Amino acid sequence: MCSDRYRPPSGDSRKAGGSVVSVPAQQPAPDALTSAESPDTSWGTSPASAASPSGGRASGSRSSEALLPRHASHERIARVAAVILLAIVCVAVVWPSGREVAELKDTVGPAFLSSEGKDIVLNLVMLAPATFCAVAGWRDIPWWMWALVGCVVGLSAEVLQSLLPMLERRPSLANVGQNAVGAWAGALAAWYLLRRLHARVVEPTSVE
Asked: Which pLDDT band holds residue 182 (cuts at 50, 70, 90)?
């Protein structure tokens, strides 16, 4: 025979003070987000992180790192060119025949200038390419140090020619000044161009 006493549908039934207290059953925890409902992070950063400044800096660093191999190759080329140009200068300084050097200057100098003008122009540009390539090749060294190195090279050349009379050369303080001007001009031009190129590379990445 079935009993007609009421039974709670669910949960535990406990007696407290002679009365029946119904304790509701614990609700199950919500299921975790499925892969379809969860945000997809396998393809990169979220839009918020992409729009954040840190995301822009990360993209800028990646683009800068992508340019490093090209810059490294350019630096190697500039270093080789600086060494070759310095070797040419050394050969021209210790060349024994002053007459042959004067004939060479008269040949390669601008045709509209006199012999004295050609000598001045060639003295001005003798060290400019070397210091230019040195600044471009060794960028971790301040540009003005390469200008000072060029000045030392020009001064050493005139001192060497004065100490070695068998070279049949005519050392002059004017040549020292002209070589110094050329050394400073080449180093300053390289510094200015590198600064412009660096600003052109950094500006688009900073906008991102």
From this structure: very high
Residue 139 · residue 72 · CB < 8 Å: no
CB 166 within 8 A of CB 121: no
- What the block records as the tokens of 147 is 């200008």
As a whole number of angstroms, the distance between CA 207 and CA 63 comes to: 13
- Within 10 Å of residue 60's Cβ, how many Cβ atoms? 17
Distance CA 152, CA 136 (A): 19
Distance in angstroms (rounded) separating the CA atoms of residues 151 and 180? 5
The amino acid sitting at 66 is A
Torsion from C-alpha of 5, 8, 9, 10, nearest 10 degrees: -140
| pLDDT beyond 80 at 9 | no
Geometric angle at alpha carbon 95, from 94 and 99, rounded to 5°: 135
Torsion, CA 154, CA 156, CA 159, CA 160, rounded to 10? -110
Give the pLDDT of residue 5: 54
Distance between CA atoms of residues 79 and 192, nearest Å: 18
| Helix or strand holding residue 42 (H, E) | none
